[in-house]
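Figure 3 (text version): structure tokens given as input.
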């Protein structure tokens, strides 16, 4: 905002410049650090919300660490832990005795310079959620935060809550790959790929599918060249194309095809590929239940691909429109319709569209 270069230890990146320009255009003085902070946060939050909206993610509420301090929630949580006898002073700092509850060492709550740590805010944050009636807390943390799990659970135990109410999902890193090479990224240097740029490049559907198709505890290599392809090599295209192909079959069958489609498959000759597809469709309820229980949406990506693969095999082996035999066409149209609905429902649970035409 002052027209000076970013300090050596500051964050680089075009987004910093954009915020500075916006603040300057709004007439905010660079000397008014409180106004810069408040408005800068508001601009970044609005930008994040818009990016997430494009990606198909909506948050019902945002929690501010500052609000926890301002409301007195942090101080109340600290006093409760202190009254319970789990807070002590050492080396000029204030510590939480988390070793009594399974942590490998005690943790600092207030540094010797008076600055509070994230752990103190976390104490108030989780306490607030539990006091509002939650019986399970699911935290999503980055790959470098493994050490936080036990200390967070220890915090809950210190306040008298069940530490097992906290479930922590550790997310591994996502590497953007192009030309067989991983992009080197750094937030501080401003050298990174934003989610907006990724959506602009490959679309929200491909971005979601490629992010979700690997387990959260596995590093993701997001291959941009593959994600751009409009062929069966691209997994999201492969699944969506199966849905669009079925829509085309139903259109080809003529008006009223869905009404003529039979839900009873007794008329099917039961070719091996027909049996395999029917069996696969019956797996959906169990797959959804397992996905939810394991917090494992990648299972639905794999299931969607298996349904698409089984459908393509069925369509290769079995004539649908104009099939010979009494009731055979209607039964195969019914199988097509159920497959279409299964793919749409599976993609819908993943937040991915199911196009009628491609």
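Below: residues designed for each position.
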């Amino acid at each position: 905002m002052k027209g000076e270069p970013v300090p050596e230890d500051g964050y680089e990146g075009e987004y910093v410049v954009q915020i500075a320009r916006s603040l300057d255009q709004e007439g905010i003085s660079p000397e008014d650090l409180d106004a810069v902070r408040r408005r800068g946060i508001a601009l970044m939050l609005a930008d994040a919300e818009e990016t997430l909206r494009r990606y198909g993610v909506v948050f019902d509420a945002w929690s501010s660490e500052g609000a926890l301090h301002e409301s007195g929630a942090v101080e109340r949580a600290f006093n409760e832990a202190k009254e319970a006898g789990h807070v002590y002073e050492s080396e000029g700092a204030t510590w939480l005795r988390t070793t009594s509850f399974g942590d490998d060492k005690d943790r600092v709550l207030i540094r010797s310079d008076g600055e509070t740590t994230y752990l103190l805010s976390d104490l108030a944050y989780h306490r607030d959620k539990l006091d509002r009636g939650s019986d399970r807390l699911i935290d999503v943390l980055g790959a470098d935060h493994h050490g936080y799990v036990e200390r967070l659970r220890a915090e809950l135990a210190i306040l008298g809550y069940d530490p097992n109410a906290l479930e922590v999902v550790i997310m591994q890193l996502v590497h953007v790959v192009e030309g067989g090479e991983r992009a080197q990224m750094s937030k501080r240097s401003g050298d990174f790929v934003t989610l907006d740029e990724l959506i602009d490049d490959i679309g929200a559907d491909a971005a979601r599918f490629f992010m979700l198709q690997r387990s959260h505890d596995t590093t993701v290599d997001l291959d941009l060249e593959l994600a751009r392809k409009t062929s069966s090599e691209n997994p999201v295209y492969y699944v969506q194309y199966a849905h669009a192909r079925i829509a085309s079959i139903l259109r080809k069958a003529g008006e009223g095809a869905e009404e003529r489609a039979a839900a009873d498959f007794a008329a099917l000759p039961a070719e091996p590929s027909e049996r395999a597809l029917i069996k696969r469709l019956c797996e959906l309820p169990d797959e959804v239940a397992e996905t939810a229980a394991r917090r494992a949406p990648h299972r639905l990506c794999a299931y969607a691909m298996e349904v698409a693969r089984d459908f393509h095999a069925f369509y290769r082996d079995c004539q649908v429109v104009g099939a010979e035999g009494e009731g055979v066409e209607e039964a195969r149209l019914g199988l097509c319709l159920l497959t279409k609905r299964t793919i749409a429902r599976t993609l819908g649970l993943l937040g991915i569209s199911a196009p009628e035409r491609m």
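Residues 65-171 form one domain.
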